[in-house]
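Quick one, C-alpha cells below. Sequence please?
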C-alpha cells in the first residue's frame, strides 16, 4: 500500500513538472490523456473519472453559485453526486498555480507532523 502512495506522489510530481501545452484550437485534452496514460497511469484514471461527469442542462452560473442555494425545487433532479462533482470541478478550475506550488510546502509540513506523531507512539 505504501509503495502505491509513493508511486502516486512520484507520478504527480512528474506531471506537475511537465511543460504546459500550447493553448490552441486543435488541442484535445482527451487525446492528450490517451497518449500520456502510459506515463501517468493513476492520474489518467482520475482524469477519466472527472471527464466522465455528464454535462448538465442547468445554467452553469446557477449551479456554481455556492453563495446561495445550490439545489432548489427546480434543480432537484440533479443528484447529490453530480452537484458535488460540479462544485469540486469549480474549485479545481478556479484554483491558481500558487495552489500547486503550495502543494510541496504542505506536503513537507504534513511529513513533519507525521514524524512528530510517530515519535509520540
Amino acid at each position: 500500500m505504501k509503495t502505491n502512495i509513493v508511486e502516486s506522489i512520484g507520478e504527480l510530481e512528474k506531471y506537475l513538472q511537465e511543460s504546459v501545452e500550447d493553448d490552441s484550437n486543435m488541442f484535445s485534452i482527451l487525446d492528450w490523456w490517451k497518449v500520456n496514460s502510459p506515463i501517468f497511469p493513476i492520474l489518467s484514471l482520475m482524469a477519466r473519472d472527472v471527464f466522465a461527469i455528464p454535462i448538465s442542462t442547468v445554467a452553469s452560473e446557477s449551479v456554481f453559485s455556492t453563495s446561495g442555494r445550490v439545489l432548489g425545487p427546480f434543480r432537484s433532479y440533479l443528484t447529490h453526486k453530480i452537484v458535488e462533482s460540479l462544485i469540486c470541478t469549480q474549485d479545481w478550475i478556479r484554483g491558481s498555480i500558487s495552489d500547486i506550488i503550495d502543494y510541496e510546502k504542505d506536503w513537507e509540513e504534513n511529513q513533519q507532523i507525521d514524524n512528530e506523531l510517530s515519535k509520540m507512539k
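The helical segments are 2-17, 29-36, 41-51, 60-63, 80-94, 97-120. The chain has two domains: 1-52, 56-121.
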